[in-house]
Amino acid sequence: MGGSTFALSENFYGLLFIGLTAIYVVKGGMYSVVITEVLQFLVMTIAAIAVGVIALQTVSPETLAALVPEDWTNLFFGWELSMEWDGVMAAANTNIADHGYSLFGLFFMMMVFKGILVSLAGPAPNYDMQRILSTRSPREASLMSGFVSLVLFVPRYLMIAGIAVLGIVGLTQLGNLDPISSEGIADFERILPFVIKEYVPSGLLGLLLAGLLAAFMSTVAATVNAAPAYLVNDIYKKYINPGASDKTYIRMSYLATVVVVVVGVIFGYLTESINQVTQWIVNALWGGYAVANILKWYWWRLNGHGYFWGMLAGIFGALFLSDGFLLSNEALSFIDLQPDLLRFPLIMGISLIGCIVGSYQSEPHDMETLKQFYKTVRPWGFWKPVHEAVVAEDPEFVSDANFGMDMLNVAVGIIWQTSMVALAMFWVAGQHTAAMISAAVMIGTSFLLKKTWYDRLEPAEETPQEASSIPVK
Q1: C-alpha 40, offset from chain centre
Q2: How many beta carbons lie within 10 A of that of residue 402, not counting itself?
């Protein structure tokens, strides 16, 4: 060997972890995903808390305050992001301008608008929906959603804040951005490995890496396990081979899983920037996802064809309007805002046209099915023909008697979740007074939600629902 060093590339490790994840997803199915997600969540939570504690012990509030802009700890902001990093971390100013965060007020308004639409769409049609469908009653579904927010927000943002604080202090004390530069260009995606290398002690390094890998594998496993359910149930079983046996569907689910993993790996090799593809998914592709999933709850006329064509139009719109196709980032440079975020309303409009045209070019759902759905879900929105049909049969039917209380709970819930995020960040940054205020707000809103939401959850007959997934592998 002559003193040579044995090393494997990052691509090899990526393929290794994806391959291991795919194996236990294929062979274990939903049960293995659930068990491993619970274990991975425990590891990830311990690692997240550890990063927050390391940041709190390593960086004093005085040191951090001397290295960040004046308004860095202020929750409130104006129309523009008034944070100047000159003399501290000049590349941060360039990064803010390049990614369109300068007009932060407009950016925040667009993000709120997008968040409202995505929330109106309900659970995403992936593993989120599978988790909802796995519950036995609407009460359990509500408790599951609330519990996820409660147990995930604080540990997650302890890690995020800890990495940010350690990265800022470490890089500014070194006096340059060389540790996170690639070919002379500031690469902020390298902050995480820099923090791990410089600040995490050996005893916790393995646990932290295991926690990060757990978060990665948990997301991949849940997504990969959800994809075959749609491919097999909604396409193969419905249109190609509706009379096949369960064993055939299971074998097809294995094949679908492998295909999804292979396609994902190919896209991974073609991706040059994690931030770039994340911004495209969150700010552009969701424009195509949101409309069809909103209309399915709020418009009685939407049917399967409208949903299909709306989703397809949105996906192709996101693809062709991405940078390098029909609409480049330069074409959107007329305003100082993130280009992918500007694509969101354009793609949403394309998807809306697809939903409307697809629905009116086909027959609506039969009225009996619509009435049953309306009586069970009691959705808001444009359901007048269905409402009139239901009331004609049952004059005492009330469509939604809790609209006002629901809106109150939404507003309180937003404050509740924001207080948890703020608590974690203020605590790590050493802002003890602000952290105590955030904790008080969290406790107060928790008590209020118990009175206005938890205590009012209607007990329902717990009858197992038919899961919209393939047979358990």
Answers
A1: 18
A2: 13
